[in-house]
Specification:
Rossmann fold, 261 residues, 36% helix, elongated, 7-stranded mixed sheet, two-stranded antiparallel sheet, Helicase, Ruva Protein, domain 3, alpha/beta
Length: 261
């Protein structure tokens, strides 16, 4: 099966990277070492895969598209450091691998949130994570307080990761060209005793959902079902603050306060 005959499927949200100079630059940014063991989410037609295989000790590609699976097997099946898993990434447990330290993915924009949730659940498996995301979604992941993009996604991603923007990527770098711009992010898991499915995180989820559903209201109003105005003042929070003004650390403090209360 020829690479050119593999047409992107809208159902899977496929937009293949096709700017080879960009691909080389991104791989330089990832800084692959000979001892690295990689997982690549959705390798597509292998535009990054072929170059990654030249640099790493092992690469496990996770792909769900049967046409691409046949192509990848033919193209890379004889490479000793290549392994192909035919599975939905959301159903895959990276702990099945003996060794893995980096995750790389050109993420389908239509399932970005579930994949971020999967990454959070499996963060202990990775030292570094590199993701191509829709620009607006990626900006929300990295957004800081007092900005329009800051919200629940920002808080949950930054609870578990230090997030940095490597570069913005023009839509012309993909085939077919998506309607929106993209962004390439680096996530490094934080050392933390917080776990994704803990009571603390459930409290944080409830708290932030309530706060950001009333984004323009004062925090004393948006969180009045949890805290009195006096409670918030005692926790060191300005009563004139709005949800977007509070830091990730402050929301964690509020969630812990609910838990201890």
């Amino acid at each position: 099966m020829k690479k050119n005959n593999l047409k992107p499927k809208k159902f899977f949200g496929q937009n293949f990277l096709s700017d080879f100079q960009l691909i080389e630059e991104l791989i330089e940014e990832i800084n692959i070492k000979e001892i690295d063991h990689l997982i690549e989410i959705g390798p597509g037609k292998g535009a990054m895969t072929s170059l990654l295989l030249e640099k790493c000790e092992s690469l496990t590609a996770i792909e769900i598209d049967k046409d691409l699976i046949r192509f990848l097997k033919k193209a890379y099946g004889d490479r000793k450091n290549f392994k192909l898993i035919e599975k939905d990434i959301l159903l895959y447990d990276p702990k099945e691998l003996v060794r893995v330290n980096k995750l790389i993915g050109n993420i389908p924009y239509n399932i970005s949130t579930p994949i971020i949730e999967w990454i959070i659940d499996n963060k202990s498996s990775f030292d570094e994570i590199f993701l191509m995301l829709q620009k607006e979604f990626g900006e929300r992941c990295v957004a800081q307080p007092n900005t329009k993009s800051y919200g629940r996604l920002s808080i949950f991603v930054q609870c578990f990761f230090d997030v940095t923007v490597i570069r913005e990527v023009d839509k012309s770098s993909f085939t077919p060209s998506p309607k929106v711009q993209s962004i390439f992010l680096k996530l490094i898991p934080k050392v933390s005793d917080m776990t994704p499915n803990s009571l603390l995180m459930k409290n944080l989820s409830t708290l932030t959902r309530e706060a950001f559903s009333k984004r323009r209201k004062l925090i004393t109003n948006s969180l009045k079902s949890f805290f009195t105005e006096e409670d918030l003042v005692n926790l060191g929070i300005d009563r004139k603050s709005r949800p977007e003004n509070l830091s990730v650390e402050t929301y964690i403090k509020l969630a812990k306060s609910i838990q201890s209360g």
